[in-house]
Structure formats: structure tokens, C-alpha cells
Write a structure and sequence with these properties.
The structure holds two protein chains of two kinds. Chain A is α+β, with helices and mostly antiparallel strands. Helices cover 49% and strands 14% of the residues of chain A.
Chain lengths: 635, 211
């Protein structure tokens, strides 16, 4: 029978996870069982300690606030699910759910939930994730970490091209017979420089020996090298057809805890062996092993070579992001590669000048490069410091380092790091100074702060020495702290500046988007979400006089140990920062830009949920700055 | 032979009539059936029901599972109204005979309070169908959301408020307008909103007679 109302409800639900993972028939059944609740503002769906309802809820229109002891802990709007936790735990409600505005809510029976959990793994995963997010409270011991633990969980399973492409296996596999003596088989393996040998019978694979077997079964003395291979071979072998994809191969290796797969004509053990696919082959496909890249960088003799390597690093980044490798790890690898490239360029450039530097110097990466948080190729930010020289030598030294810097900037540009439009580069005479000049400059910035100088502090205080003399950099760092000590209110100015970008949610629900200009109606993830966290971390470590910790994550980690009472807040800042950085990188890779401006409407519900989860720590850390630096008086 | 003796009615009608004898008075226990009919025209004496859609409200929740949606076979066809309700004489929706639809409907509204927007017309259409089946008129208590709207306000004006107007006033997203079920659903949401308003105006829990 036709059911217009159920169809309409279905149309709504199918746009939101977990319902989007269900079949039409499943959804129709669910939709036709829905109860529709109309809630006036301030009326409750359930109250703390109330007995369990036999249902969970999805917001259709309006907004439902979830409260713990009258503190708003979450806010659900269109498509959000709430009331799951009690249902899953089969316990009374720990939270209040109250309409923040007039709302319409779909109520669904717990039976539906059970069906979803049993029948659909994807939907099931999402429910568990929402279960965590909907009851999130970064400060409660019980739920700690659950929100952010789902960072990867909420991402759609994008299978990368490389994972679905068919795997390239080694043809002409090395084989022997079952009665071959182990020693002979090993000689064959050695001769062919392979880590495995397949035992065949009528060209069909019946067993395999790998380096691991030799280690575990021979070297331990369990078998003698004079035995036949059949004594130690693993059998039966795992076989696949030549069409095997990289993803399939990886799964098969993981599942069977093996590192070699046999490729046969029809994929069964009963057909001819035509190849062997090793874990190493898979790594080669994912390619671009970072240590190999770094070696190549060190050997590079031209900028063109470095450019090629940097492009490979970009592929590596792509793969890492797709494989959900932890973002701090990715940032470290990419920074190490960028740093190695810069170092190589500096040595190449010095060689080109045909002259040793007149005095020791150091090359500094500044801004996000200095913090090692730059994953995408953006413009370069750098500076140069050199030792004080006698007045009559000054001109020569200046000229040398400016020429050198110019060469380095140009080479970096060739490699792919565009020239900085704001000219924050060492080739700019303003940022190529002696250590005394830098110290004077820092002192001036700190003791006479204005908006521009604060901005410069934000960029230059995050420096990281890439090449050169460490002593000079230490001196610079000490001078910053001396300056701050002499003029402590500087940190208050800095904090006030950090609060210029308010927490990214406008009165709770919608993303703050740009209201004019080229990026109108887009969300500026850098200015509104990443920078507030970066700025706060910098101010906090400066206030503790912590030197040499430049990355935002490391800074918050340091703060966790320095202020255990705020540990949970700092931990949530770290998690939020990781999510935001990954998100920006993904967006940048997807749109081939800096990833900074995001069209919120193009995001999936899950992504919006994930982003919104990051905003609470931002708000909280800003509150902390406000209180700590008594900004209510200053503002 | 007694021509004036009460007629005997079929069982389904007796069951329907019986359901009002022991009506409970509590509002929470009351089952409201919100309904709408699509018709070939606006004259109950000559036009016919094309479809009936209902949704029930109990304890101030709309229960989608407890709803009825049926399409009636048409011997009478008015091409002019097709563009309003979109129902073709043939079409691919399963249609049933009018008598069967009325039987289903009576069963569905047993013991319920009927709610509709400008309910007099819908009731007149149903009663006309009952008359064709040689049955008496509907016995349910009736609530008209048009009238309810006026009750929630202090306006005395005798203005006619269309469902469209009220959906706009109350911010109800209109879907499936001019299908019986769609309109019934919109009316049900309107009914909930009006009930909340009425409650606020009375400043106490509502009783059935408030409607």
C-alpha cells in the first residue's frame, strides 16, 4: 500500500548516516514506524535519571540541546541522532535532552536500532561513533577520548586509486620441487636475490618457503639444511588470480599473517603458477618510501631532481592521508622531507657562490613551516640570521647572505614552494639580519606591540633551524624571553590578538562563514579553527618560558605536563588540532589548493559533525586565555 | 412489518458505532485521527472522494505506523481537479472500491476524535459516501484546525485560514501538499502546534472539551 508520509520521512532520513547505509526497504520499514514529536522550546524529550524510553531520536527540524547538570554538552540539529547512549547501555538517562527552539523530532523504536546494528556493519560503525559523539564531554573521565578516538571512523571509506588498481606481481617466480634439498633451494633463492621460493608440482603451487621459514625452522636447529624442502614448506599456499588488487592483497596478507601470495592462472591452487606477490611489491606500489626519498634528496645534484622528489613526496602524502596514517606522523615525514630538500638547496647554493660564508649563519623556517605543520605545498616563509660582524665587514656580509638567500628562495620556488607574496623570505633585507639586529628587532616588537608587530611575532616566534649554527638561534630565543620578561603585558596583547577570531560556531549551530569577499559563505578553517589553536599554544608556552618547542601538538603536550589540572583541555586541543590539520590537508589535496576555504554545504553530515566536534576545545582554550590574561579588562 | 423500526446495519458499522459507547475522557488516552480527503470537487452532493489519508496523534506524538492511505476507484471523473490532486482516473496507484475504503476508514477511526482542516467539508464528503451505502452519519467528535487556530488567538474575525496560510504562519515545511496523506500529516503537525499554543493560552493541561 502506498505510504506518502513514510516515503517523505524516508526521503529525509536517507540523507543522513547511518540511514544512508541502509537499503530502501530497510529504510521504508523504519520510516513507516516513526513517531513524530513536536516540541516547544524548552520542553524535554527526556530528563536526567529518567527511565529508559524504548526509542532513540533524530532531529527533523529545530535544535535539541543535550545537558549534563544544566550545562549544555551537545547540540543536535537536523539529522543528528540523540538518546542512543542510554539505549545501548540499557540504562537510565544521564543527560537531559531539551528543545533549544521549537523542534520536530523523529522517534524510532529500539527494535529499529537492533536491526541496524545486526544487519549493516557500516551503519553499525556510525552508530557507535555517534554514540560517542552524542554523549561527548571532553572533561568527563568516563567519555574521555571517545569523541576523538573516532577521527578515522567517521571518514568515508575512500579507496584510493592505488588500492583498487591491480597489483604488479613478479612474473617468473623462483620455484623448486618438493624433494629439493633445503640448502639447494636456499642457494637458488640467494642467487636470484629473492625472499621466497615456491614449491611446485605440475607447475601448480603446493607450498612456499620464505626467509622467515629459514629463520624459524632452520637457524633454530629444528631442521637440517640437508632435509627436503617439503619438511619446512608452508602449505597450502594462498592463491589469487592475476587480477588481484592492491587492497585485496593487503587484506589477504593481513588476514593470513603472510607476506607472499601466489598468483595462479585462475586464482586456485589447481592451476599454473604464474607469479608471486610479496609485501615488498605492495610497498613499492604505495611507493615513495620516505627513507628512500631522503636518500635521493641527499644525492641530488640539481634543483630539477629535487623538484621530482618533492612531487613524489606529494604522492606519499596523498597515500598517507588516504590510509588514515596518524597526522602527526605524516607531518613529521613531510617536514623531514621538506627540511632535507631545503638543506640540500642551501648546500647547492653555497657551492654556487664559489665562496664560503664570511661568518656562521643559520637558515630558519618560520610560520607553519617552522612548526612543521605544513603538509601541503604552499608559499615559503623563511629568515636568515648571521653572526655579528665588524662594521667595515657588514656590507660584504650583507651582500653575501642576501645573494645566497635569493638563490635559495629561487631554488625553493623551482622545487614547488612558491615565493611568499608578503615577502616573508630571507632574501628580503628585513629578514636577513645579524643576531644583534634580530635581538633588537624582537625587543622592539615585544615592548612596543601593535597589530602588525604581533602578527610578525606570531610568524617569527615559530622558527625552526633548518641549517647552520645553533648558537645563533639559541641567542635569538633567549632574547625573546628577556624581552617578554621586561614587558610582561606583551602576552596579554598577544592573547587579545589570538581571540580576534572567535570560536567558529555562531550561536551554537551554524559554521561562521565569511560574509564578504572572494570566499563569501565559505568556512575559513585556517583563520577560524587552526590559527586560534596555534596562537593559544604559542602564548601558553611563551608564558612558561619554554624554548625550542615549536609544533602546536608538542606545545600542548608540554602544557599537559606543566598544568596537569588542565590536562583534559589540552588533550582535547591536540585531538582537535590533528583532526583540523588532516581535514585541511584532505581538502587541499582534493581541490588542489591550500585547503583553507571550505564550502560547508559540500561537506557530508559526518564531516560537519567531526568539524563541529573540534570547536568546543577552541572555545574553551580561548576562555582560558581570557581568564588567564585578564582580557575582560583589556577588551 | 414495521417500516419505522431501526434498520439493521452491517457488523462493521455496529462495531464502529459501539466504539463510542464507553469513550474514555482522558486526553492522553484519546486517539486523534487527523485526516484529509481529496475529491473530484467541492460539492458534497455531486462530487466524489478520490483518496483518504490519515495519521494518528496520541499523547501528542504523531504515530506514522497508525495511518491509513487509500485511493478510491473513480466512476466519476472531473478532469478539472486533476491538476490539484494529481490523481488520474487510471494511474498506477492501487485503487479500491468506495465501500471498501469507507469500511477501512470506519474501522480506523473507531473511538477516535477526528481532526481535519475545515473538517465540515471532509465529514460531509464521508457522510455522503455513507449515505450511498445506506448508513448513518459519522459519530466521532470533531476538531477543526481552522477553528482551533481562531480559538488560540483572541481574534473574533470570521476569516477563512487555508492550510497553506497556516503552514506558512507556523513554519511547517510543506511537502506532498494536495495529497490526502500529505495534507493529513501537515494538519497533524499544525494540530500539535495549535495544541501547544492553546495550552499556553489556558495555562494548564488541556482537556478534551477545550477543543
Amino acid at each position: 500500500m502506498k505510504n506518502t508520509i513514510a516515503e517523505r520521512i524516508l526521503d529525509f532520513l536517507k540523507g543522513f548516516p547511518p540511514f544512508d547505509a541502509l537499503t530502501y526497504d530497510q529504510l521504508f520499514t523504519i520510516a513507516s514506524q516513526v513517531k513524530v514529536l513536536y516540541l516547544e522550546k524548552d520542553s524535554y524529550v527526556f530528563k536526567q535519571n529518567e527511565g529508559l524510553h524504548d526509542s532513540f531520536y533524530v532531529v527533523k527540524d529545530g535544535g535539541i540541546g543535550v545537558y549534563r547538570d544544566n550545562n549544555l554538552v551537545d547540540e543536535c540539529d537536523e539529522g543528528d541522532i540523540f538518546g542512543l547512549r542510554a539505549l545501548i547501555r540499557k540504562d537510565h538517562y544521564l543527560l537531559d535532552a531539551k528543545a533549544i527552539e521549537e523542534s520536530i523530532v523523529y522517534s524510532m523504536s529500539s527494535k529499529v536500532l537492533e536491526d541496524i546494528i545486526i544487519t549493516n556493519p557500516k551503519a553499525n560503525q556510525f552508530l557507535i561513533a555517534s554514540f560517542a559523539t552524542n554523549t561527548r564531554n571532553p572533561y568527563s573521565k568516563e567519555d574521555k577520548g571517545t569523541l576523538f578516538a573516532n577521527e578515522d571512523f567517521l571518514q568515508p571509506n575512500t579507496s584510493s586509486f592505488s588500492e583498487i588498481q591491480s597489483a604488479k606481481f613478479s612474473k617468473n617466480p623462483i620455484v623448486c620441487q618438493a624433494h629439493t634439498i633445503i640448502k639447494e633451494a636456499c642457494l637458488v633463492m640467494s642467487h636470484n636475490k629473492v625472499g621466497s621460493i615456491v614449491i611446485t608440482q605440475n607447475k601448480q603451487p603446493i607450498g612456499i618457503i620464505t626467509d622467515k621459514d629459514l629463520r624459524n625452522k632452520i637457524a633454530t636447529g629444528l631442521h637440517a639444511i640437508t632435509h627436503k624442502v617439503e619438511a619446512i614448506m608452508s602449505t597450502p599456499v594462498i592463491t589469487f588470480p592475476p587480477t588481484i588488487t592492491v587492497a585485496e592483497a593487503q587484506i589477504a596478507m593481513l588476514k593470513n599473517d603472510i607476506s607472499h601470495l601466489c598468483i595462479t592462472k585462475d586464482g586456485t591452487p589447481n592451476s599454473e603458477l604464474i607469479g608471486i606477490l610479496s609485501e615488498h611489491d605492495i610497498i613499492v606500489i604505495h611507493g615513495n618510501n620516505p627513507s628512500v626519498l631522503i636518500k635521493e634528496i641527499k644525492r641530488a645534484t640539481s634543483t630539477e631532481q629535487l623538484k621530482y622528489i618533492r612531487e613524489k613526496a606529494q604522492e606519499l602524502l596523498n597515500n598517507y592521508i588516504e590510509q588514515h596514517i596518524p597526522i602527526s606522523f605524516i607531518a613529521n615525514i613531510i617536514s623531514a622531507i621538506n627540511e632535507a630538500i631545503t638543506k640540500r638547496i642551501i648546500t647547492l647554493s653555497i657551492t654556487e657562490t664559489n665562496q664560503e660564508p664570511p661568518v656562521p649563519f643559520a637558515w630558519l623556517a618560520i610560520g607553519s613551516q617552522g612548526r612543521k605543520e605544513q603538509l601541503l605545498l604552499t608559499d615559503q616563509d623563511n629568515a636568515l640570521v648571521f653572526e655579528d660582524v665588524a662594521e667595515n665587514q657588514k656590507e660584504i656580509a650583507n651582500a653575501y647572505f642576501l645573494t645566497l638567500a635569493k638563490a635559495i628562495n629561487n631554488k625553493l620556488n623551482t622545487v614547488g614552494f612558491e615565493l611568499c607574496p608578503a615577502n616573508m623570505m630571507a632574501s628580503n633585507p628585513k629578514w636577513c639580519l645579524t643576531v644583534s639586529e634580530w635581538k633588537a628587532q624582537f625587543k622592539n616588537w615585544v615592548t612596543h606591540p601593535d597589530a602588525d608587530k604581533i602578527m610578525l611575532c606570531n610568524i617569527f616566534f615559530d622558527y625552526d633551524m633548518v641549517y647552520g649554527n645553533h648558537q645563533l638561534v639559541d641567542e635569538m630565543s633567549s632574547s625573546i624571553f628577556e624581552a617578554i620578561e621586561s614587558y610582561e603585558i606583551f602576552l596579554n596583547f598577544m592573547s587579545r590578538n589570538a581571540l580576534k577570531n572567535p570560536a567558529p560556531l555562531s550561536f551554537f549551530r551554524s559554521f561562521l562563514v565569511e560574509d564578504s569577499g572572494e570566499h563569501k559563505d565559505q568556512f575559513d578553517i585556517k583563520a577560524r579553527a587552526i590559527m586560534p589553536l596555534v596562537d593559544a599554544a604559542r602564548i601558553l608556552v611563551l608564558s612558561h618560558k619554554i624554548k625550542d618547542i615549536n609544533s602546536t601538538i608538542a606545545r600542548y603536550q608540554k602544557m599537559e605536563t606543566l598544568e596537569p589540572q588542565n590536562k583534559d583541555l589540552y588533550a582535547s586541543c591536540i585531538s582537535a588540532f590533528r583532526i583540523l590539520l588532516r581535514f585541511r590537508t584532505q581538502q587541499g589535496l582534493k581541490h588542489d589548493d591550500s585547503g583553507r576555504f571550505i564550502d560547508v554545504n559540500s561537506l557530508s553530515k559526518a564531516d560537519r559533525l567531526k568539524l563541529k566536534g573540534c570547536f568546543k576545545p577552541i572555545k574553551d582554550i580561548q576562555e582560558l586565555l581570557k581568564t588567564r590574561f585578564k582580557l575582560s579588562q583589556l577588551l | 412489518m414495521n417500516w419505522f423500526k431501526h434498520k439493521t446495519y452491517p457488523n462493521f458499522y455496529n462495531a464502529y458505532a459501539e466504539s463510542f459507547k464507553h469513550q474514555r475522557k482522558s486526553l492522553e488516552a484519546t486517539r486523534f485521527v487527523v485526516f484529509d480527503t481529496e475529491t473530484t470537487g467541492l460539492n458534497p452532493n455531486q462530487d466524489y472522494i478520490l483518496s483518504i489519508g490519515t495519521v494518528t496523534v496520541q499523547d501528542f506524538n504523531i504515530n506514522v505506523a497508525d495511518s491509513l492511505e487509500c485511493y478510491l476507484q473513480q466512476d466519476h471523473f472531473n478532469a478539472e481537479t486533476v491538476e490539484i490532486h494529481g490523481l488520474l482516473k487510471a494511474g498506477n496507484i492501487t485503487k479500491i472500491e468506495e465501500t471498501k475504503a469507507i469500511k477501512l476508514f470506519l474501522k480506523h477511526i473507531e473511538g477516535a476524535v477526528l481532526v481535519a482542516h475545515h473538517i465540515a467539508f471532509d465529514v460531509a464528503m464521508i457522510n455522503q459516501a455513507l449515505k450511498r451505502m445506506d448508513l448513518p452519519k459519522l459519530k466521532n467528535k470533531l476538531v477543526d484546525t481552522g477553528q482551533l487556530y481562531k480559538n488560540t488567538k483572541y481574534v473574533k474575525e470570521d476569516k477563512h485560514y487555508s492550510l497553506d496560510q497556516l503552514c506558512n504562519t507556523f513554519n511547517i515545511t510543506m511537502h506532498d501538499r494536495h495529497t490526502a496523506s500529505g495534507d493529513a500529516y501537515l494538519t497533524a503537525v499544525l494540530f500539535l502546534k495549535l495544541s501547544a499554543l492553546l495550552k499556553k493560552k489556558k495555562n494548564r493541561d488541556l482537556r478534551l472539551r477545550d477543543y
